[in-house]
Amino acid sequence: MTSRNSSTQLWLITHYHDYGSLYDYLQRNTVDPESCLQLAVSIICGLVHLHVEIFGTQGKPAIAHRDLKSRNILVKSNKQCCIADLGLAVIHCQNGDYLDIGNNPRVGTKRYMAPELLDETIRTDSFESYKQTDVWAYGLVVWEICRRTIINGES
Q1: What are the average pLDDT values for consecutive 10-residue runs of the chain, which has 155 residues?
Q2: Where in the chain are the domains?
Q3: Is position 18 annotated as part of the catalytic site?
Q4: Which Pfam families match (predicted)?
Q5: Which of 69, 103, 130, 145 could be stapled to 64 by a disulfide with Cβ–Cβ 3.0 to 4.6 Å?
Q6: pLDDT of residue 63
Q7: Backbone angle region of 56, left / alpha / beta, with phi > 0 → left and psi within -120 to 50 → alpha
Q8: pTM to 2 decimals?
Q9: Running DSSP on this structure, what letter comes out for residue 110?
Q10: Which listed residue (18, 24, 67, 119) is catalytic?
C-alpha cells in the first residue's frame, strides 16, 4: 500500500508470465488443436473458479469479471492461462444475497460485451446476469484462439 497526494493505492504483486497476455501470445504464435483446447479449458476453469463462492476459512465470494478479454488473460510458462485485471469485477455473497458492484458502474470492452450490456437490458440486480455476460465474452475469446489454430498445416 502506498500513499500519493493523500490517496491510497493498493498494489497486488503476482508472478511474472513470460508469454504475456493471451492477445499478445496469439499475435506471435499459432496453436495446434490440442493447445487450442488446453488454452480454452484453462480459461473456463479459471472462470468457473471465479463464479463459484467458496465457504469456510479459506473461502472467497463469487466473482463476475465483467471485462473478460484476451488482453486480460495471462499465459503461464506451462501454457495454462490465468485471468487478470479484476478492476471491474462484481462480488456476490449468498448469505444475505449481497451483490457488490462497487463504485464503478462502467462495464468492459465493447467488442466483448453481451447484447444485453450493449442494449442496456441486463438485470443489474442479478449476479447470474453478470456471470452470463462473462460466458459470452469467453465465447469470443475462444473464437480468437480458434482463429490462430492450425489444422493439418492450414489456418
Answers
A1: 65 88 98 98 98 93 97 97 94 82 76 94 92 98 98 77
A2: 20-147
A3: no
A4: PK_Tyr_Ser-Thr
A5: 130
A6: 96
A7: left
A8: 0.88
A9: G
A10: 67
